[in-house]
Structures are given as C-alpha cells and as structure tokens.
TrEMBL record:
dksA C4-type Zn finger ranges: 91-115
GO molecular function: zinc ion binding
UniProt keyword annotations, A-Z: Metal-binding, Zinc, Zinc-finger
Extent of Basic and acidic residues compositional bias: 37-57
Native organism taxonomy: Bacteria, Pseudomonadati, Pseudomonadota, Betaproteobacteria, Burkholderiales
Pfam families noted in UniProt: zf-dskA_traR
Top-rank taxon, per record: Bacteria
InterPro entries xref list: DnaK_N, Znf_DskA_TraR
Protein name: Conjugal transfer protein TraR
Organism for this UniProt entry: Comamonas terrigena
Domain Zinc finger DksA/TraR C4-type stretches: 86-121
Length: 121
C-alpha cells in the first residue's frame, strides 16, 4: 500500500482540489472569451496584417493553454477519483507505491518513476 500518512494525504487532496478549481476558472475564462468573440464577429475584422498575425498568435497560444489546462484537469480529476477509491499513491501500471517526494512534487502522478519513464518512451 501507499506510504502516505493521513496528513500528507489530506494536504495532497487539498492541493488537487485547489488546482482543479484554478483550472476550471481558467477554462471558463477561455470559454467566455470565445463566446464574446463569436457574438461580435465584426470585432475580429482587422485590416493590418501585423495586427492580424498578432491576434492569430494570441488565439493559438490561448487555445494551446486551454488544451494543456484541460489535459491537466483530466489528470487531477483522475487522481481525486483514485483518492476516493483508495488507490491513490499506487502506480496504475505496476501497482507499487509511488514515492512520496514524487507525489509531493506532482500530486496528480499516476505512475511511479520507472513506469512513467517507460510510458513516455
């Protein structure tokens, strides 16, 4: 089983819950921004090519950040689900305990270092 004590588990749960809320707020802000842009298409019309390029770059970056936030939110929710079912802190591949320092650094970690390294190959 995992070697987390009750205090560490509660701290990690709180960290995951806080991160979930931040990610949800960021995704909601992007959604509102897209809705505002869709509601006023005339606002998007720009004649200056340099300004068009800057606007497009900003939109691409915003979309990339939203995708990253969404992917992280999926991991955070999965970690909270594992916590609720009692398997948090155990590697989803090998079933061994994930090192506490790894969980403290990356609370949504689902794999031990060895399995994560293998997964990334």
């Amino acid at each position: 089983m995992t070697i987390l004590n009750a205090t560490q588990r509660e701290q990690l749960r709180a960290t995951l819950e806080d991160r979930k809320e931040v990610l949800l707020q960021e995704l909601e802000a992007v959604q509102h921004s897209h809705l505002r842009q869709a509601a006023d298409p005339d606002d998007r019309v720009v004649d200056d090519p340099e300004e068009q390029a800057e606007r497009l770059t900003g939109e691409v970056l915003s979309d990339a950040e939203a995708r990253r936030d969404h992917d992280e939110l999926v991991l955070v929710r999965a970690a909270l689900a594992r916590m609720a079912e009692g398997s948090y802190g155990l590697c989803i591949d090998c079933g061994k305990a994930i090192a506490v320092p790894r969980l403290l650094a990356h609370p949504a970690a689902a794999r031990c270092i060895a399995c994560q390294s293998q997964f990334e190959k």
